[in-house]
Amino acid sequence: GPGGPGTGTEITGGNGGDAGMIAPVPAAYFHLPFGENDNMHFGVSLTAPFGFKTDYDKNWVGRYSGVTTDLKAIDLGFAASYDVNPYVSFGASVFVEHLTIELSNALDMGAVVNGAAQQKAAASVLAAGGTAAQAKIAAGQAAQQMALMGFSPGSADGFVTIEGDNNAVGYVLGTTLSPTENTNIAFSYRSKVEHKITGGKANFTVTPETAALLAQTAPGTFIDSSGKATVTLPASLTMSVTHRINDRWTVMGDVSRTAWKTAFDQVTVDFASNQPDNTLGFHYNDTTFGSIGTEYKLSDTITLRGGVAYDESPTSIEHRDVRVPDVTRKWLSLGLGWTPSEKTEFNFGYTHLFTNEPGINVTSATGNVVKGKYDVGGDILAASINYKF
């Protein structure tokens, strides 16, 4: 259960409601073949490779660890490829990635002000030549005085919202091998992307009484400020295989490895004010994603699809937090393709995600502890249209 910093005080509030929500993930592609026998290709893509969002009720028990978390990465890519011969092709793309991030949480200002008053009282006694025992007594008296004024853990809440955005450049390299007419083996590498956010903003909201006390005990803190941070999105390596068994059956599979560990270990927000740096310790692990599937051509116009996947989470019980209570997922997917003409194709898909209940045990920046379990799950609906000019 939730508790106040170092006191065992229970923090009141609800369970946060449904922190997940419906999130559209749009994508668009343009492909232009050219050259001798169309052996060269140019493409433009608009994709959203990374993103997550959680949004809890503002008065929930874990509010000091997180309320809103919203990260979106949108890529505009330009690609080119060359078919060396019927067996080998190479390709590369460069993309510009726009990252936006918003983080918000409540602030246990009761604990902050109470703790600052205790530290100041103890320091005054020690500076005057008093003993450690006398300093402890003075700190206790200051704590009682602050509590009478309404400043104790779980009270006098404040709120902070941190926002930032940035543009950065990355690249993708790939090759496709076709040892037979019916088999394709592809490899691709996507670079990591480092976003150095320099124009971030932090907006703090505290009560007038809290602001007055902070001006004496911790001037220049918990005030609106600019800030900077570096957010690195990971590199990944993917191998995929497609094999056409006959005119009706095709099987495919892919495996990818994502280097979260070196990219997303922690993110430190450096405030321009006297506010101490805020370090978010994600401590993500590298992950593996694997899938196998098949498609069956029911007729000249209808194709049926199905597949399963294993999607490893980068989080662990030691470091999983309320912002991204992620867990390893197993996918079950079904799909349908409809080709009413040579120029037009419609595709529809449905995926259900099977998960366990992830547990959390985290401590906020103000020392509040949240322990518990999540009921997570998800469904994915997909629809696309391909049109040949």
TrEMBL record:
<keyword id="KW-0998">Cell outer membrane</keyword>
<comment type="similarity">
    <text>Belongs to the OmpP1/FadL family.</text>
</comment>
<dbReference type="GO" id="GO:0009279">
    <property type="term" value="C:cell outer membrane"/>
</dbReference>
<keyword id="KW-0812">Transmembrane</keyword>
<dbReference type="Pfam" id="PF03349">
    <property type="entry name" value="Toluene_X"/>
</dbReference>
<dbReference type="InterPro" id="IPR005017">
    <property type="entry name" value="OMPP1/FadL/TodX"/>
</dbReference>
<protein>
    <submittedName>
        <fullName>Membrane protein</fullName>
    </submittedName>
</protein>
<keyword id="KW-0472">Membrane</keyword>
<keyword id="KW-0732">Signal</keyword>
<keyword id="KW-1134">Transmembrane beta strand</keyword>
<dbReference type="GO" id="GO:0015483">
    <property type="term" value="F:long-chain fatty acid transporting porin activity"/>
</dbReference>
